Amino acid sequence: xxxxxxxxxxxxxxxxxxxxxxxxxxxxxxxxxxxxxxxxxxxxxxxxxxxxxxxxxxxxxxxxxxxxxxxxxxxxxxxxxxxxxxxxxxxxxxxxxxxxxxxxxxxxxxxxxxxxxxxxxxxxxxxxx
Length: 129
Fold this sequence. Notes:
Blueprint: E1 2-7, E2 13-16, H1 18-28, E3 32-38, E4 44-50, H2 54-67, H3 78-84, E5 90-96, E6 99-100, E7 106-112, E8 118-128
Antiparallel strand pairs: 1-8, 2-7, 3-5, 3-8, 4-7, 5-6
């Protein structure tokens, strides 16, 4: 298992982590198999999302904001926890010929909802050659 660390810069943002995950798979030497990603945080999430139009990332975050009304909560960062509840904290990806199988316009994103923070991602690659 490999541990990756990402430092976010904003309260909410989408960080494209496709390159780092791909490099991790290549370094593990697995040609064909499965990559499992796990993000052990309750105010962030993982998504596979469109990676060519940056404006869609803002639309995604705005949509999460419309699902969770900003108001007084008993927990100080409740909105971030509630938004993260709509996301995943793990992904399972297929690996073929040393590459993650993604669609033409897809990327892997860490979605920060309570930053800036340092986030940890665990990557486990299994399979053969």
